[in-house]
Amino acid sequence: MELSERKRRILKAIVEQYISTAEPVGSKAIAADPEMNLSSATIRNEMADLTAMGLLEQPHTSAGRIPSPQGYRIYVNELMNEHRLSLEETQEINRALKQKMSQLDSLLADAGKVVSELTSYPAYALTTQVGRRTVQRYDLIQVDGETVIAVLLLEDGTACNRVMKFPGGIEKDLVQRMGTVFNAGFTNLTAQEIDSAMIRAAERTLGDEIGAAAALASFTISTLESGGSKKVLSGVSNLLTLPEYQDVNKAHKLMDFLAEGNELEQMEMPQGQEGVQILIGPENVAEELKDSGVVLATYPLGNNMQGVIGVVGPTRMDYAKVAAYLSYIAGGMQQISQGTSPPQLPELRPMDDQDESR
Amino acid sequence: MELSERKRRILKAIVEQYISTAEPVGSKAIAADPEMNLSSATIRNEMADLTAMGLLEQPHTSAGRIPSPQGYRIYVNELMNEHRLSLEETQEINRALKQKMSQLDSLLADAGKVVSELTSYPAYALTTQVGRRTVQRYDLIQVDGETVIAVLLLEDGTACNRVMKFPGGIEKDLVQRMGTVFNAGFTNLTAQEIDSAMIRAAERTLGDEIGAAAALASFTISTLESGGSKKVLSGVSNLLTLPEYQDVNKAHKLMDFLAEGNELEQMEMPQGQEGVQILIGPENVAEELKDSGVVLATYPLGNNMQGVIGVVGPTRMDYAKVAAYLSYIAGGMQQISQGTSPPQLPELRPMDDQDESR
DNA sequence: CTTAGCACTCTAGCTCCCTGAGTGCTAAAG
DNA sequence: CTTTAGCACTCAGGGAGCTAGAGTGCTAAG
């Protein structure tokens, strides 16, 4: 059966009502809408059709209808109004971001926090490595007779450091030669490509008897392996305010999944695409998300990193609004991450290009 | 009224039973204990006394008794057996710590995680600054014509870095002179002591027209201000498995408090003492914790940092066990943080010095 | 001082019932 | 053919009433 225009209007009304009330929607409620010049009986007939088509569901005979995942899908793909951020909303976001953004390092956490505060849903932010992760350059700074700071400049443009202490003392000369050896032999290699034979060789070359080379190599490996990929969660307890998670068990399962699972990290755009993706209920791969909705935005970050920022909520979530927020913020993140240091927040403007002159 | 030996035994039995069942304890249940050669009627009389003394409470007339906060206090101070970690427990902890401890940086998070996994209560770990926080030394590494990495060695022995980009290019000479100027003029100062006049003066001295000095100074200030103090939470969703937090509202409030509030950070040992502290119900300052229990351990960390690791749970929490875990782990953290790099986990032994030869 | 016995209290959980929202179907009206 | 009014039917949710059981406090006897 094809979706008539009228059915579409009814479906849209049902989804939107359900999104805001979380209660099954009855025919009368829809008929009450002044835009809908139909009696409740007619609506009932249409609703019966929509149910037969699998777009609506009935919790039980005498309850109203709620949208099925397929129903949401149609809503998201075809019916949903683009949520245009109002000037106030963008100002709100800009204000929130500006206050928080201090360093690229905490950018993730802050973005997640902003999103979760704006949407009242839990949000997560993460980065993933898309290419090789290697050291581009080593710098060793000798602080005193037994302390050396190693600074690793990674290929993605970030730097890491570690204070290394050698209680027996370490020769200035050794430090310098070690820098040379590592810059020559340990750059442009991934963690996997560094093996113990190389480390032993370096030790021999250096005449290193205090394990300095081994320490530096192990720092290198752990830095590369930690993979720059981080995950930050915010606002998880917001779940508990939602009617669908009044069941403690359900809430617990989802929270655990969010805090623990690294499956979130595998959920990203296919082949590094960018943009906003919406996953409804069973469309999610993870079992724990089968009756939740996920909206996520992917954006490029630094050289070969990718950032993902996402929101998890009940299936009935305000997809239009959340998607708009995410895409806006992802855009901002991208700009900031490309900006110079200290990161200056670019003046983000509302996404719409229309005249804001009302 | 003085606490007779018998009353103490009965109080202890009640607290312990309540800790494990979370149900009000009746006289019969206590009388059933073979160690307690008394009839339920006698116990009832004693319980009535204990209630009059304010050590027990009655949810309603025909329910059993539960310990009052004062009752817990007496239990914790006088009655509780030191929980001696068994060999298995320490092995378990050692195994868990060893697996996770990689870098001092993530040490906190890992310790919290271990604790929350072991206790099934939410745990938090944080560090606070106890003394002045200043830069001890600046190192500027020029990577290419427009990129400089600034490495700040702080007075507490940690190092921070930041990649600074100057799109218009930056002179080698300027970088070098800036290092000299900052090492001379910006070390041993707290964030508050650096003012804009100083920055302008440095800019003039350097003939800096691209804001390099301002960027470095602002990095310095934000580093010093961020105060090395971090907070990491783990296992918050564990709350939801506990009977006292089946009420979603209660759980939500506490979770929010844990995630948001920085009041946790103000809860530490008076004047930098070390050791394990137990706060029961209303003994907590924060309103949100008035009917929870908190166990926290404080330990020195680095030069003038202090680490705190704590567990939050229902008032009825197994204080003996949690306190034992925390003090053990805090000891380990202290050792690790004083160790050389890469941090090697010292082989922690059970706290008891008695022969483990069963 | 301890204990057995008893009357009393109070909650948790059960059933029963009713209400109200919502449905599907039918027949009449447009 | 479509829309609508009307009606019988279904079912979850909530309140009232009841019971069982756990626990208490008191008294009187050992």
Structural write-up:
The structure is a homodimer. Chain A is an alpha+beta fold. Chain A folds into 3 domains: about 5-80, Winged helix-like DNA-binding domain superfamily/Winged helix DNA-binding domain (Arc Repressor Mutant, subunit A); about 95-130 and about 230-355, 2-Layer Sandwich (Beta-Lactamase), CATH 3.30.450; about 135-225, Enolase-like, domain 1 (2-Layer Sandwich), CATH 3.30.390. The first copy, chain A, is about 45% helix and about 20% strand. In chain A, the strands form 3 sheets. In chain A, strands 7-3-10-9-8 form a 5-stranded antiparallel sheet. A 3-stranded antiparallel sheet of chain A has the order 4-5-6. A two-stranded antiparallel ribbon of chain A has the order 1-2. In chain A, a hairpin with a 2-residue loop joins strand 4 and strand 5 (about 145-155). The first copy, chain A, binds a DNA duplex (30 and 30 nucleotides) through helix 3.
